[in-house]
Amino acid sequence: MSSLTDFAKANTSLDRVKIAHLNRLVSEWGMLADFCFADLLLYLRSNDGVWMTVGQVRPATGQTIFTTDYVGVPANESENIVLSECFESGEVIDGEVLVEGLDDESRMMAIPVRHEGEIVAVMTKEWIEQTGRRPGELERVYTQISEHFIRMVSSGEFPTSSRVGDSSSAPRVGDGVMHLDRDGCIGFASPNATSALHRVGIQSTPVGVRLAELGFHDGPVRQAFERGVPVIEEFEQGAEATLLCRCVPFVEGGEVVGGVLLVRDVTELRRRDRLILSKDATIREIHHRVKNNLQTISSLLRLQARRLTHPEAVAAVGESVRRIRTIALVHEALSREPGDDVTFLEIVRPLVRLAEEGLQSSDRPVRFSVIGDGGRIPARIATPLSVVLTELLQNAVEHGFGYGDSDGDVVVSLAHEGDLHIRVTDNGRGVMHGFDLDQATGLGLSIVRTLVTTELAGTISIDPASNDDLTLAGLSPGNGSRGTVVSLCVPVVDDADD
Q1: Could you tell me if 206 and 332 lie in one domain?
Q2: What one-character DSSP code corresponds to residue 261?
Q3: Between 379-400 and 443-450, two packed helices, what is the crossing angle to 10 degrees?
Q4: CB 103 within 8 A of CB 115
Q5: How far is residue 439's CA from residue 294's CA, in Å, rounded to a whole number?
Q6: In degrees to the nearest 10, what's the CA dihedral of 354, 462, 362, 316?
Q7: Which of 62, 175, 209, 496 could share a disulfide with 264, CB 3.0–4.6 Å?
Q8: Are residues 120 and 231 in the same domain?
Q9: What is the pLDDT of residues 229-287, one digit of tens each?
Q10: pLDDT tens digits for 362-399?
Q11: 346 lies in some domain
């Protein structure tokens, strides 16, 4: 079934302003259904006269009479009569209709939906009347509140065009309800609303007094009554309580004649939010400090390298510095991104720049590039994965290109397809056919093999690059050689998602 907007555009002459009004009604009417203790349906009449159900909501306060979804279902014969009479007369019409799956007829109240004086749709309230049962005070008050809303919908005074925030996070009827008169005095407070008042230290009876007289923040009520539009506000009541309140005024003939205040205690929710923010801030600060410490170690090693005279010792210290800087870059990225994962591309790019600084020279001009997107990866694998990539870049330059070679390219290709796929392709001298990574004795490849198989639980292969491999990386053979391709596959599903 197409959306309300799609159906209205394709089958009616309603303009976008009227369609927007209907969408606002649908976004708000969960509250109306709860006050009505009944199902609500929205009908539009197409240009060819067919009444079509374009919206449906079930009450959270009572039992639904519809076990199936009626959106996209045309009205039956008995419904057509009531809907057409309501649309033509512009009045609220009561009737009885047949509902599929029910033995008895159900009650239907057809309510004209007006916008700027024009009837644009019909909303129905549908329920099965229960005989021999006396409603309690809460049900009687909720019914009175629903009657206010029905009059406002039929007169075009609800919903308002004013945006008051995300209605999906607004308090619901089940959270707590206070019925207010035109002076803002409380005429009724539901048990949940009374409990909310008790939790903030207000023990006196709320009925018959204003919120301000109880010592309760009345900002939403004052603003809603002054402006004639719904107002939602979150505030701290007392030292430890946080409440989310929404006040909807009853407007008749442009005059505010009362209202309803929905109250939700969000103290525990906000406490958890603060804990999460504090935890994230602490973790980011730890990553920042670790990065600074690693950079200090790296600086000390570089100072030590300047005192060395043996070329092999200088080279070994230089490799250690690169590995430490790699880990520092990871912690820097983790310090910027909250949560348990990180955008891999934000790590790869500085790693490639680090490789360019350390491995490029006028005698060995090698270009580096990155293609693709590795998506987001769990923070727990970011460090070993970055160390592996650094070793592969260093290995590609040192073994693929010699000093005095013209130029060359190293391309890092990323793809996130369930698993993380990394390819490091170069057009250098290439490895020999039959190269076996397990037999490699170099420290760098030993580190790569150990991290990939143990820490990352992945797979890796190093092979001579085929023409297809080079073409895929946007390269051509250089220096008369075929080049090398390293293929790496790492599972990236976090433990929490298993």
Answers
A1: no
A2: E
A3: 150
A4: no
A5: 32
A6: 60
A7: 175
A8: no
A9: 999 998 888 767 888 999 999 999 889 999 999 999 888 887 887 776 666 666 667 76
A10: 677 888 899 998 888 888 888 888 888 888 888 888 88
A11: no
